[in-house]
Amino acid sequence: MAKPPKPIGLVTELPQASWWKINRHIVLLCVGAFLGWQLSSGSSGADPQPPQPCPTHSTPSPETSVSPFPGLTRSP
User: Fold this and answer.
1) Which backbone phi and psi does 21 adopt, to 5 degrees?
2) d(CA 59, CA 66)
3) What angle do CA 26, 31, 34 make, to 5 degrees?
4) How far apart are CA 14 and CA 21, in angstroms?
5) Sign of the torsion formed by the C-alpha atoms of 58, 59, 62 and 63
6) Are the C-beta atoms of 4 and 14 separated by less than 8 Å?
7) What are 8-45's pLDDT values in tens digits?
């Protein structure tokens, strides 16, 4: 059983805090960081799908004029 605090004059000496009370913020920080890392890694267990190939781009024909702003026309 724990010893009662011994008096030093009118001030009593408090008993030493437990390991958990001293270090609980560090433990909870590490557990929270680990769980956040696990949740954000997206480990759903499913096999990743291979990327779909992109369609090839052809050069525009000379008859086609490309306007950067289709609604705007330049007036002389």
Assistant:
1) -65, -30
2) 11
3) 125
4) 14
5) positive
6) no
7) 677 777 788 899 999 999 999 999 999 999 888 875 66
**Spatial CB neighbours of 60, under 8 Å, sequence gap ≥ 6:** 66
The C-alpha atoms of residue 50 and residue 60 are separated, in whole angstroms, by 30
pTM of the model: 0.41
Please check whether residue 5 is in contact with residue 13, taking contact to mean a CB–CB distance below 8 angstroms.
yes
Distances in Å between the alpha carbon of 53 and those of 31, 50, 56, 58, 60?
A: 40, 9, 9, 15, 21
Four-point Cα dihedral 28, 34, 37, 39, nearest 10: -80
